[in-house]
Amino acid sequence: MKGTVGELGEFGLIDKLTSRLTTTPAVRLGPGDDAAVVAAPDGRVVASTDLLLEGRHFRRDWSTAYDVGRKSAAQNLADIAAMGAVPTALLLGLVVPAELPVTWPTELMDGIRDECQVAGAAVVGGDVVRGDSITIAITALGDLRGHEPVTRSGARPGDIVAYTGWLGWSAAGLAVLSRGFRSPRAFVEAHRRPEPPYHAGPAAAGLGATAMTDVSDGLVADLGHIAQGSNVRIDLGSGRVDIPSQMNDIGQAVGIDPLQWVLTGGEDHAIVATFPPEVKLPARWKVIGEVRGPAGRPQVTVDGAPWTGKGGWDHFNDTQT
């Protein structure tokens, strides 16, 4: 495939992108009309949206267009799963320079399509606009299938805190890339292309999760939203989280305690939830803390003490908070 986006034109680009898509039974009317029609058997639609900016959320010298597509879809579909819903559809808004090779947006769409297939969803429409740099806007939709949404405000004293997925892998991969390296590959790939446990969100709702979120900005920061919304204190045990030996090796090489990546690294999109203590969790869930009464202000503590390190990502503060 040769040429640039400008040479292909808006409608030619749209045709190229939509020709690569697949569908699902939930899609009653896909791309090609003024709007799509997606079935919502539950009668309620779960919706989430995100933006990715070139140079802030991804770099073309670090990630392929396909990687960016997988990542941009994953972070939105994970939000749907974290509400206890099943992802059904995704809408794409794309801003690209006219001189961008056509291969870039088509490979991006391949990545988005393939990540949607992993989650059981489909791309149903969107828009493309010319701009000075690449911006990707994603809106994801989901179906609750008869469950109530699992929000951030239902955690209760006595609940246990558990997660499933990966913690700190993306942050460790970013540290490797930032120093000009490309290995260990597993951690670099975790940063380029996260693998959220989509099935775990609806499953947690069925198990009786009282509060839930995905880890997009860091475990401490995202659990902090649950603590605030539920007016509780959440205490994590530093010895209860998994730190692989290779992550320890990376930490030693770059002079960073890997616990910091586990507690504050985002973009792995693990699912973390609170459950009543009597719930028997499947083996894929790991218990890492407890919910306690709000002695003072709601907060997340580690080993009983306030976390004094960096806490997570803030888009309006170029560093972690």
What is the strand tally?
Answer: 15
* Oligomer status: single chain
Class based on secondary structure composition and strand pairing? alpha+beta
Strand order of the largest sheet: 8-10-7-11-9-12-13
The helix count comes to 10
Shape: globular
**Portion in strands:** 15-25%
**Regions with pLDDT < 50 over 5+ consecutive residues?**
none
Describe the sheet with the most strands. Answer: 7 strands, mixed
CA-atom Rg in angstroms? 20 Å
Order of helices and strands: HHEEEHEHEEEHHHEHEHHEEEEEE
Measured as a percent range, the helix fraction is 25-40%
User: Could you tell me the mean pLDDT?
Assistant: 93
Q: What does the model show?
A:
The chain is α+β, with helices and mostly antiparallel strands and 321 residues long. Helices cover 32% and strands 25% of the residues. The strands form 4 sheets. Strands 8-10-7-11-9-12-13 form a 7-stranded mixed sheet. A 4-stranded mixed sheet has the order 3-6-4-5. Strand 12 and strand 13 form a beta hairpin. Helix 3 packs parallel to helix 4, helix 5 packs across helix 6 and helix 5 runs parallel beside helix 9. The longest helix has 17 residues. The protein is globular and about 60 Å long. The mean pLDDT is 93.
In short:
The protein is an alpha+beta fold and 321 residues long.
Key words describing this protein structure:
321 residues; alpha+beta; seven-stranded mixed sheet; 10 helices
